[in-house]
Design goal:
Elements lengths: L1 E3 L2 E7 L8 E5 L6 H17 L2 E4 L4 H11 L5 E4 L10 H8 L3 E5 L10 H14 L2 E4 L7 H6 L6 E3 L3
Length: 160
């Protein structure tokens, strides 16, 4: 359990990662082809710099970014839009053992499926908790674009 801003989050992994500066990475599900390689390059750059990235790693591009990050040694925070599972995915075992992965969720174990609402809650949480935000791509008039309108934090875009 991690306590953040008086809110308790279910967690698994190295809670000390929470104290690090965090960059949230979010990306819409549908992405123009020209953006894909820029997202990969951004992920590799973050990995090489050792930056802590927080993301839901849910959309395909976010999953691809996680793939590149897991090849490094930098800290990663995985924010779930559901409760923790009883078993850990195999690709997370080694990073957990190495103390470089923290999995968090605002949901209890009874929430087993990601819904539009749980994803929105998770995304808002990430934006609130991150020090800065990087967007792979936000669909025009999409949920992500709408969510970002409410933040005063620095929002970077990998395509700029």
């Amino acid at each position: 359990m991690v306590k953040v801003n008086n809110e308790s989050l279910e967690s698994l992994g190295n809670a000390a990662i929470w104290a690090l500066p965090k960059t949230a990475f979010l990306c819409s599900r549908k992405v123009p082809a020209a953006v894909v390689l820029k997202c990969y390059d951004w992920a590799i750059e973050q990995r090489e710099k050792g930056n802590c990235i927080i993301s839901g790693f849910h959309s395909q591009i976010e999953k691809d970014v996680l793939h590149y990050l897991l090849k490094g040694k930098q800290p990663i925070i995985l924010a779930l839009a559901r409760g923790l599972k009883s078993t850990l995915e195999p690709e997370f075992e080694k990073p957990i053992e190495q103390g470089r992965l923290l999995i968090i969720t605002p949901f209890d174990k009874t929430i087993k499926r990601v819904t539009e609402q749980t994803a929105a809650t998770r995304n808002k949480l990430m934006i609130d908790l991150a020090d800065q935000i990087t967007i792979g791509y936000a669909s025009p008039s999409g949920q992500l674009e709408e969510l970002l309108k409410g933040t005063e934090k620095l929002v970077a875009n990998v395509t700029l």
